[in-house]
Predict the structure.
Amino acid sequence: MLLASRVLKIAGIIIILAALVDMMILPYPYDLGNRQWQIGFVAQFVDRGLVPLVGLALVLTAYWIDTLPKGSSVLAVYTEAEGRPLWADLRLWLLLLASLLGLLYLLMFPLHLSNISSGNTELQQRIEQEATQAEQQLNQQLQGRVEQLRSQINQLVNATDEQINQAVQARIITEEQANRIREFKRNPASIDPYLQQQADQLRGQLQTEIGDRRAQAQARARQEALKSGLRVSINSLLLAVGYSLIGWFGLRSLLRQE
């Protein structure tokens, strides 16, 4: 049992230290004022939260094993070693660490929800701005395409009927387009209304497409924010409860032995 106890203590301490080092190094470089950094830090801290808990369980189990030959109960895990001052007892510092982690995870719960909500609001605004910019670029592109179509129509209007028929036979234009060109030759004033109609039709199609993409992007952003907020926040709250119970009840039992 002595060997098993020492192995558990060594393994538990290594697990705790490795997890804490991992938690502190991964978020480097630190940028405490950056909301996105805070979101990433909390997520990583929560995702690794079970590892120190396992280490604590191993160490405290090892101390419980040490008491078994003496016929002590399970609660004897918190009994101070004979002749050792309380401040020199490893369990005191581990329980203080558990209490500290419990407090940190409790504070991270509302912090992460607030950051996710603010981040989602900013993302929704950015998506809206990008959609507005896309519509502005659309208007510019439509103007260019209308002028290009106007130039093509003017060239065809200036062509002879024989050239138009040859274009139809060569399948450069359709018979419908050829008839429209002949109409333009008879009534040049109909060109501008036709171009406006084409521009409005194309603008409506592209605006619908932009609107659909915007709605999809906003829906995805809300879903991701909801998933991240619920997953990290609930896990943070659970870890806060777990560490706090271990730390507070453990310290109370340990101090009662004094």
Summary: The chain has two domains: 2-119+232-256, 130-219. The longest helix spans residues 90-157.
